[in-house]
Amino acid sequence: MIGNSAYKTSQLRNPANDARAMAKALCESGFNVVERIHVSRREMGRVLREFGNLIARDKGTGLFYFAGHGMQIKGRNFLIPVGADIEREDEVAYAAIDAGEILGKMESAKNAMDIVILDACCNNPFARSFRSSSQGLAQMDAPNGSLVAYATSPGSTANDGDGANGMWRPCWSFSPCRACGWRMCSRRSASR
């Protein structure tokens, strides 16, 4: 669980709250959770390594959740760390985390099922200085047995929400699957 709200420019209100709420729900459902709030690029790299080691060791369902700024550059999705110093489009690959790295960790772990939830505000906070005008995140090809969920459809932007949590987080609950006994994510209707 990574929740990044405290950006230098274009701060977000809800990602830290959303990550805490998701971590709590997952812990209560039996998941081993690595939770980090307001994470730098260096720390995101360490979290990914820790996550990869954990899912490879436990051989269960791997679930990666990111709330914060995300953007696509040339069809690749990037998760923006707190403190990112990005002035030009060609700097994103070195200052942010490529979401493909998460899928790589999952593929290496060879779990039966993996889930990536990108609860990202996809309006590019650096757009004024960028050449491309791509909005939202790009669709990703996930390995077999993987599910990638977005806060909005690929190519669209998501809203941070008006309350203590983003608009997407309250729609998820975690419960045992009757058919196989796995702890799985299941969507229930939101009351908004």
Fold and architecture overview:
By secondary structure, the protein is an alpha/beta fold. It has a single domain (2-187), classed as 3-Layer(aba) Sandwich (Rossmann fold). Helix content is 24%, strand content 24%. The protein contains 4 helices and 9 strands, in the order βαβαββαβαββββ. Helix 1 links the parallel strand 1 (2-3) and strand 2 (36-37). Helix 2 (41-58) runs parallel beside helix 4 (100-109). The longest helix has 18 residues, at 41-58. It starts with a strand and ends in a 5-residue tail after the last strand.
Describe the secondary-structure layout.
Blueprint (H helix, E strand, L loop, with lengths): L1 E2 L11 H14 L7 E2 L3 H18 L2 E13 L2 E4 L12 H4 L1 E2 L1 H10 L3 E9 L24 E5 L21 E5 L6 E5 L5
Parallel strand pairs: 1-2, 1-3, 3-6, 6-7
Antiparallel strand pairs: 3-4, 4-5, 8-9
Overall structural class, as computed from helix and strand content, comes to alpha/beta
Shape assignment: globular
CATH topology assignment: Rossmann fold
Q: For this structure, what is the CATH class? A: Alpha Beta
Q: Considering DSSP H and I runs of 4 or more, what fraction of the residues is helical?
A: 10-25%
In angstroms, what separates the terminal alpha carbons?
25 Å
The gyration radius over C-alpha positions equals: 16 Å
Q: What's the rounded overall pLDDT mean?
A: 78
Which residue ranges are poorly predicted, with pLDDT under 50 across at least 5 consecutive positions? 173-192
The number of E-state strands comes to 9
Task: Summarize the biggest pleated sheet.
Answer: 7 strands, mixed
How many distinct folded domains? 1
Specify the number of helices. Answer: 4
Strand content: 15-25%
